[in-house]
């Protein structure tokens, strides 16, 4: 797989959170992507300086529109530009789709995937997971999905409306608010614990595929709890976004 | 080169070829130690080189001060990613100390007061590459920075420049010292980013 | 600026060196012989390159460093790499 750099044109942007935005890019000749893959975005300054960062793809399929979602990091170099400065009509350079490991497909070969899928996301870690959820919905795949999504507050959730509309028997969502819970929420704001993870997620006996994505510290805590709870480490896939 | 990204300037940065990969510049002099600072009086201080035959060459503080002393201007690079450029030291070259040492071993283990050890191949100590340094920036080397004297091997990551140096023991193989047994690279070349084992 | 991530994040940089998707390749650690997909490796990533470390024993699997003179790939920590079978 040679991934040359492609140029796309930003067609739309949407504020998702106080620090985050989703960006839709038109990419002629986009080969399509599987849920969970990412792109590397490259910015070039007038003096030739370049910065490259990876962003997960929120969209799935072979539409020529690619959607990314970016959270502005406090010391970031690329994310502030993408969240605050980028405008529709701007060109963006990137390579991809990249990564074939942290992915979910409704079918592998001719075999429909039916095993339960547990998704656990923190903050912008939801991005590859929502691609999996969209892939699941678009293919009418019969597997049961559960999502555990940890965010600071309701405003900090990416794609909140879409997730709420997709929630149902085939997608059970557990929201964890770590700093500020919504009005009338039954639990006060709290950080995710191993016990809550255990009660919200598929049991080991159901042999789920597990995907964990978000800041590095979050992913490592959750992954180690999952192993403590008896999950086979080989069934737990992780993607760390850096940060704390 | 890629297409120019409208409005992107990047962080203001000075590309400094003196910085090895993954390092950033500091004006400070951070203190990192594996243990407490030993308290060594120069009246009791001794440096020794012990060869494979058991022969020991020893220098008291006064012996050291009587040897040719060099001014050293060099860059230092810590594995924790800070680099300090143009630091100035005074010390005695290991070439001077090894002049009368008869050895056919290729490796050394540096031993410090307090028990710290680090391994350095002999050829990385010779030919103007290393010193027993006792002055930094025009002042006697402070205890927290390894005083009264430390090994100074600036072409390797700074954990190799053993503070509170007490002696070198010749080894026939590149046996790992303290940090080399605890996650750090056996050799430690900053230009090849040899941080970890 | 150094990011503490995992092998997934270097899929792109690895594609500049290897043809296959190396995040799916399995790497055997020369030190502890643990064999896992490179996507799981402990990665430090910055502007000039990256280091992959074995998550079991923390030894370095490999390092890629870009300088103006060359890109240096140090594979000393990898005993072997397992790729999907090649199509013939």
Give a brief rundown of this model.
The complex is a heterotrimer of chains A (244), B (197) and C (88). Chain A is of the alpha/beta class and 244 residues long. Helix content of chain A is 19%, strand content 33%.
Question: How would you explain this protein's 3D organization?
Answer:
The complex is a heterotrimer of chains A (about 240), B (about 200) and C (about 90). Chain A has about 240 residues and is an alpha/beta fold. Chain A is built from five helices and 13 strands. Chain A folds into two domains: about 5-100, Translation factors (Elongation Factor Tu (Ef-tu), domain 3, Beta Barrel); about 105-240, Nucleotide-binding domain of ferredoxin-NADP reductase (FNR) module (Rossmann fold, 3-Layer(aba) Sandwich). In chain A, the strands form three sheets. Chain A has a six-stranded antiparallel sheet. In chain A, strands 11-10-9-12-13 form a five-stranded parallel sheet, sandwiched between helices. Chain A has a two-stranded antiparallel sheet with strand order 7-8. In chain A, strand 1 and strand 2 (about 20-25) form a beta hairpin. With about 200 residues, chain B is mostly beta strands. Chain B has one domain: Oxidoreductase, molybdopterin-binding domain (Sulfite Oxidase, Chain A, domain 2), CATH 3.90.420.10. Chain B has two helices and eleven strands, in the order E-E-E-H-E-E-H-E-E-E-E-E-E. The two termini of chain B are about 35 Å apart. The mean pLDDT of chain B is about 95. Helix content of chain C is about 5%, strand content about 45%. Chain C has one helix at about 10-15, and strands at about 1-5, 25-30, 35, 40-45, 50-55, 60-65, 70-75, 80. A five-stranded antiparallel sheet of chain C has the order 1-4-5-6-7, with no helix packed on it. Chain C has a three-stranded antiparallel sheet with strand order 3-2-8, with no helix packed on it. Chains in contact: A-B, A-C, B-C. At the A-C interface, strand 4, strand 6 and strand 13 of A face strand 1 and helix 1 of C.
């Amino acid at each position: 797989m040679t991934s040359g750099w492609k140029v796309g044109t930003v067609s739309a942007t949407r504020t998702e959170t106080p620090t985050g935005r989703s960006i839709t890019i038109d990419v002629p000749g986009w080969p399509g992507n599987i849920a969970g893959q990412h792109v590397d975005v490259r910015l070039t300054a007038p003096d030739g300086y370049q910065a490259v960062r990876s962003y997960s793809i929120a969209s799935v399929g072979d539409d020529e529109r690619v959607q990314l979602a970016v959270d502005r990091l406090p010391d970031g170099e690329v994310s502030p530009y993408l969240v605050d400065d980028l405008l529709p009509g701007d060109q963006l350079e990137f390579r991809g789709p990249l990564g074939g490991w942290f992915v979910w497909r409704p079918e592998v070969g001719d075999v429909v995937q039916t095993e339960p899928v547990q998704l656990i996301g923190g903050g912008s870690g939801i991005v590859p997971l929502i691609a999996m959820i969209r892939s699941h919905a678009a293919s009418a795949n019969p597997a049961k999905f559960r999502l555990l999504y940890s965010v600071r507050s309701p405003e900090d959730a990416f794609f909140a409306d879409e997730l709420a509309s997709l929630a149902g028997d085939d997608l059970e969502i557990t929201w964890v608010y770590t700093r500020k819970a919504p009005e009338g929420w039954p639990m006060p704001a709290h950080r995710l614990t191993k016990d809550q993870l255990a009660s919200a997620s598929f049991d080991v006996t159901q042999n789920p595929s597990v995907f964990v994505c978000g800041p590095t510290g979050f992913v490592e805590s959750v992954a180690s709890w999952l192993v403590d709870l008896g999950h086979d480490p080989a069934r737990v896939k992780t993607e760390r976004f850096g940060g704390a | 080169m890629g297409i120019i990204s409208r409005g992107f300037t990047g962080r203001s940065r000075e590309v400094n070829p003196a910085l090895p990969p993954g390092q950033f510049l500091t004006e400070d002099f951070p203190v990192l130690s594996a243990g407490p600072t030993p308290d060594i009086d120069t009246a009791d201080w001794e440096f020794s080189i012990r060869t494979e035959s058991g022969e020991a060459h020893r220098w008291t503080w006064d012996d050291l001060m009587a040897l040719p002393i060099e001014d050293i201007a060099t860059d230092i690079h810590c594995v924790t990613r800070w680099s300090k450029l143009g630091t100035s030291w005074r010390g005695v070259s290991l070439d001077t100390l090894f002049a009368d040492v008869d050895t056919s071993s290729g490796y050394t283990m540096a031993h410090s007061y307090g028990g710290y050890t680090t391994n350095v191949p002999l050829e990385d100590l010779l030919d103007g590459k290393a010193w027993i340094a006792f002055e930094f920036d025009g002042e006697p080397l402070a205890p927290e920075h390894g005083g009264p004297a430390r090994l100074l091997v600036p072409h390797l990551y700074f954990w190799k420049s053993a503070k509170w140096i007490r002696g070198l023991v010749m080894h026939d193989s590149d046996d790992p010292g303290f940090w080399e047994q605890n996650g750090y690279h056996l050799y430690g070349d900053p230009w090849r980013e040899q941080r970890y084992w | 600026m150094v990011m503490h991530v995992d092998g997934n994040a270097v899929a792109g940089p690895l594609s500049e060196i290897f043809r296959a998707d190396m995040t799916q390749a399995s790497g055997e650690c020369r030190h502890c012989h643990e064999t896992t997909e490179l996507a799981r490796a402990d990665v430090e990533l910055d502007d000039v390159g990256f280091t992959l470390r074995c998550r079991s024993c923390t030894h370095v699997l490999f390092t890629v460093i870009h300088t103006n003179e060359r890109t240096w790939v140090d594979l000393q920590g990898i005993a072997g790499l397992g790729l999907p079978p090649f199509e013939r």
